[in-house]
Structure formats: C-alpha cells, structure tokens
Amino acid sequence: MALTNLLQALAGLGLFLFAMSQLESAARALLAGRAAGWLQQAAGTPVKGVLLGVAVTALMQSSSLVGLLVLALVTVRVLALRHALAIMLGANLGTTMTGWLVTVLGFKLSLGEAGLPLAGLGGLLAIALPEGQRSLGRFVFALGLLLLGLDTMKTAVEVVGTRFDLAVLQGLPPIVYLLVGVGLTALIQSSSASMLISLAALNGGLVSLPEALAFMIGADLGTTSTLLLGSVKGAADKRQVAAFHLLYNVATALLAFLVLLPLWPRLLAALGWNDPLLGLVAFHSTFNLLGVFLFLPWLAPLERGLVRWVGRRARDPDPFEDVDSKAVEPALLVVEQSVARLGETIRRRCLDWPDRGALPAFYRDYEAITDREMRITAYLNRVGQQPLDAGQTARLQRVRQCLSEWVYACKAIKDVVDDLAPLHDSRAPALVALDAALHRGLAAALAHGAALDETAHGRAMAQLTRQAYQAVEAARAEGISVLNLVREIDACGRHWIRGARAGSSI
C-alpha cells in the first residue's frame, strides 16, 4: 500500500509539472509576446523595474523564462544593466506567487474535485474555439490538470505521512534540508515543483515547519542554475546579470537561514498564526521581499562593481551566439530586435542616395546587409525547428516576411543605384527637381511604413512618373533611365510598407 501511495504522489507531481509547463506555454501565447515589451518598459526607475519583474513573472509563471528574456534584452542592448538587475529582483519576488496559488487552491480551498471538470472544459475549448483563441482553452485545461495534480499528491502524501516512521529523519540539521533543496531544484529546474514537494511534505506530516523552511531556502538558491547555465557563453552583460542573481540569492539565503529561520516559528506563534502551510509561503515571500529592500538602494554601486569585476563588454554582442535558438521565447525576441535594427540600417541606406564617388561604399553596405540577412535567416531556421505554439509560429512568419520585404526594398534601390548617382549629381533643373521629388516620395513611404496605404503610395508614384516623362530628354542626355528609376523606387516603397506592416508588432 505504501508503494502505491508513493507512486500516486509521483503521479501527482508529474501532473503538476506538466500542468505548470502548459500554463506557462498558454500564458505565453495569450500574452502574444508582450512580456518582452513590458520588460523593456523598465527603462524608467528601478522601482518600476522591480514591479514589472513581479508582474511578468506572476503572469508567465516562470522566473527562469523571465530571467532568460532579461539576458536576451541585455545582450541586444535594449535593456540597461541596472534595469535588468531591478527586474531580476522583482522576478525573485514574483515567483513566490506560485506558492500562494498552490497553497490556496490546492491545500486550502480543496478544489481537487473541480480539476476534472476544468480539464474537460479546457479540452473542449481548445478544440472548439477558433485557432487564434485556443490558448484560452489550453490555459483552462492546464489549470484543471494543476488542481488534479495537487489533489492527487496531497492525498497520497497524507497517507504516506501516517505510515512513515519520522524517526529516520530526526536529528538531521536544517542545513541538510537546505542542500537537498538546492540540489533538487537545480536538477529538475523548477522552483514550483520544489515548492509543491515542500508543501505536500509539510501537509502530510513528513517534515516539520523549520525543515520545510530550510528546504525552501535551498530551492530558491537552486534557481540560480538556470541563469548561470544561460550565461556561460556570450557577452559580459549576461554574466553580470547571472552574477547578480547568484549574489542576491546567496545573500537572501544567508539572511533567511541565519536570521529569519530561527525567529519565524516564534514570530508565527506570537501572531497567533497556526497554519504551517501559510507560514511556509509567507516565509518565502518575506525573505524575498526583504532581499528587494536590501538590494534596491544599492543597484548603482552594484552595477559598477559587476562591470569592474565580471568584465566589460569587449566586443559588440553576437546575439545568435549568445542566445541559444532552443530557448524559443528569448530567441524570438533576439531575432525581432535584430530585424528591427537591420530595418533601420536599410531605411537609412535607401534614403542616403550616393553620388558617383560613394558607389563603392554603397555596394559594401549592401553586401553587409545581405550577409546579415543570411545570418538572421539561418538563425530563424534553427528557431523554426523547435516546438512552437501558434503564437510563436505566427511571430516567426511575421519576422520572415518583414525581413524578406525590407531586403527586397534595399535591392530595388541597389538595382538602379547606377542611375540614382548621376541623377543626384546632375545640375539640370528638370533632373534636380525630379531627384528631390523622388526622394520625398520614398521618404514618405519609409517614414510612415505600416500606417501608409499602399494604394496612396501608388498614386504618389504615378504622379512622379508623369513628372519623369517631362524629364526624359534631359535624362537621356546624361544616360539615365528615369522611368525605370521611378518603377524601382515605387517597388522599394511598396516592399517597405508590406515589411513594416508585417513587422508592426516587433
């Protein structure tokens, strides 16, 4: 019977872990990539960064994913190191929300009976809803499985607790439980699972409150392994964020273990708080909140120290080396940022019409653009080989289209640059006027992008075509094919508008 209960407990844990992964995936799809945008908004104050870190981690149900997103943002230079540190403070606090969710839903409200109906309803919604809304069904399905897993493990551990001789655990110091928490969390890469294990063991009478507290401290410390592994290669910025995360967790672990742990049971008794489960999750939130208050005022000197001791940026980062394509969400973020940066380079190149002397530089720039396109495409292909949800697949397709259209826009200019250069150099009044008119027309298309109606752009180009006919004789005298020039500039604008429309979300 004891073996059956143990297997039941493992089954409950498995359901919980699977449900958490599905909740994370569904939340990611529902957010449609907005988490990265929210993190970028942390450019205000450190307090704002902390609050965003808390909110995004609570929504995404994964501090590890938020940490990897932060590493990606730092790598592509869209997030300053100080703001990244503030977000990581918030992420550590945000991950404690899972403990409250598990405790209230799974152990206090006894919603296990609702798990099966919720899972069934979610499954039906995931099938019946339109393709773009099925993430909601998956989320409900995962929530139902989570409740089932919690209830299954809770029941099994309670039975094991009545049959297990606790004498074998007596005498083990709290440091042993801390080390077990570190090792287990580093192994399974899930602090949520460690939280569930400690709550179930405490609820089933397998461990006392101080032992569960020590285990939870270790579990928090074990979460540092994800960022440490993610920062082994690449830019110094990544290693600085990972070093800070390790420093923070070590400091809060020492604070919790040496100061808060001995006082906590007496504090709960003084407050008349006799519920050990709520005491455990409150302890988890308390020492992380204390860590935020301890570190937040010192972010500036910590940033300087990390830059000095962990290393300065010795080179421009190569995000395709620094961010593994297997980490889909950070990889998509990196490729979106890379395409956006390349788009700005293309826009400037298309508008900066060369004179005859600058033609070699133009061709070198165009070659650099196509080389970058090939690298981005190769990275996109690697990302596309990973398991993607519907939202991620759509983002990948939009990025591909955006990249393709913008490179085609640049190619259109390249194809007529031998006519653009002498037009730009010409002193003939009709050609000077045409050059200025064409530049204004293209600048309007490239400035307004997705907001510009392609038809309106076509009408503007048609008017310029009529002006070009008036300049044909002057152009022929200088060997310039102005009608072909107008057609290619029109094509450049159309490609840019379509690319901007596809990339409007990046």
Overview features:
single chain; 506 residues; mainly alpha; Methane Monooxygenase Hydroxylase, Chain G, domain 1; 2 domains
Structural notes for this entry:
The chain has helices spanning 2-31, 34-40, 46-60, 63-75, 81-94, 97-108, 112-128, 134-163, 174-188, 191-203, 209-222, 224-230, 236-271, 276-295, 299-310, 319-322, 328-351, 359-384, 390-415, 417-425, 429-448, 454-470, 472-477, 482-502. Residues 160-167 have low confidence and may be disordered. The protein has two domains: 2-310, no CATH class; 327-502, Methane Monooxygenase Hydroxylase, Chain G, domain 1 (Up-down Bundle). The protein is mostly helical. Helices cover 81% and strands 0% of the residues. The protein starts with a helix and ends with a helix. It is elongated. It has 24 helices and no strands. The longest helix is centred in the middle third of the chain and has 36 residues, at 236-271. Helix 21 (429-448) runs parallel beside helix 24.
SSE diagram, text form:
Elements: H1 2-31, H2 34-40, H3 46-60, H4 63-75, H5 81-94, H6 97-108, H7 112-128, H8 134-163, H9 174-188, H10 191-203, H11 209-222, H12 224-230, H13 236-271, H14 276-295, H15 299-310, H16 319-322, H17 328-351, H18 359-384, H19 390-415, H20 417-425, H21 429-448, H22 454-470, H23 472-477, H24 482-502
Helix pairs in contact: 1-8, 1-10, 2-4, 3-5, 4-5, 4-13, 4-17, 5-13, 5-14, 6-8, 6-10, 6-14, 7-8, 8-10, 9-11, 10-11, 11-13, 11-14, 12-13, 13-14, 13-15, 17-18, 17-19, 18-19, 19-24, 20-21, 21-22, 21-24, 22-24
